[in-house]
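Q: Could you fold this chain for me?
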Amino acid sequence: MPFPPGPLRRFQNMSSPPTRDSNTHSHHTSTPAGNASALQAAGLGEKKASHTALAAIHLCDLHKHFGSVRAVQGVNLTIRPGEVVAFLGPNGAGKTTTIDMILGLSRPSTGQVEVYGLSPEQAVSRGLVSAVMQNGGLLKDFTVEETVRYISKLFSASRPVAEVLERAGIAGIAGRMVSKCSGGEQQRLRFAMALLPDPDLLILDEPTQGMDVEGRRDFWNAIRKDAAKGRTILFATHYLEEADAYADRIILIRRGEIVADGTAAEVKAMASGRTLRATLAGADATSLKGIPGVEEVKLQGDTVIINSADTDSVARYLLNETDARDLEITARGLEDAFLALTGDEAHDIGTAPTPRGAR
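A: Sure. Below is the predicted structure, expressed as structure tokens.
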């Protein structure tokens, strides 16, 4: 769910949850003294200033250990204002741990984290940072508009409720109860709340989870418009096609270390070779694997799919020595690069280029 619109989550720790007054429709909440710092972290701090001259995120030799588990190992990274960056990796790679440290939810074992030249806690308290997390509690007995309007009161400066509802694509369901919203609509609601403080940095965790194809396209069009105005976007997703289509820069992390950092084209190029498709009835995978230069063979009916560092030589062999037809050679996609660079055999790929933040 959104951060700093985290008060919704923090209600779980309060002695009594907020309730709706059926007569006045006002919202009441018990706020123990211990939650004062939580409200400050929710954006009640001083009004943010312009930070366009500073790095949006700067991580220096970042480490995070949980006992003997080294979740993050020596991460160096700089993200510039206005960049749209995809942060990708398999489960357990260190993505969430790194994001938690950027948000100030966790402290590094060693190393430095700066957000617009400030500590994460300072950046959050000034409304410079918001996050849309994949999961998190919402108040089911509020309407969409009531939820956003309530959270807007927690900020010293907030964008108009109608504006963020429109930008999130949920103005048409403003009067709908949250409990009646689909998963995609609830994720858009979290997005709307994250836009309230008009953050300079927006962190998204699986932002389009539950959205249909049209909803995902509209969401990313809105994100690109925000980035064009200078907002920095860092997002994690399992939809690799989203990273390929919308990210200016892709960062791959494996076992707590950055293994790739570049444009989509640069990352794809790190997965050497290309893919050859051909129609070959009765193909024998063992024989095809014996062709010089062949790395992997897949058979799908009469279709042969071959990964090779020298597809031209493989194509000549198939045309001259077999009955193969309908040959097609394509560059490997982002998924191929992802698997090659973050999978169990990734150590055989070679040394990854120096991450941009370390240059």
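A (continued): Residues 1-49, 347-359 have pLDDT under 50 and may be disordered.
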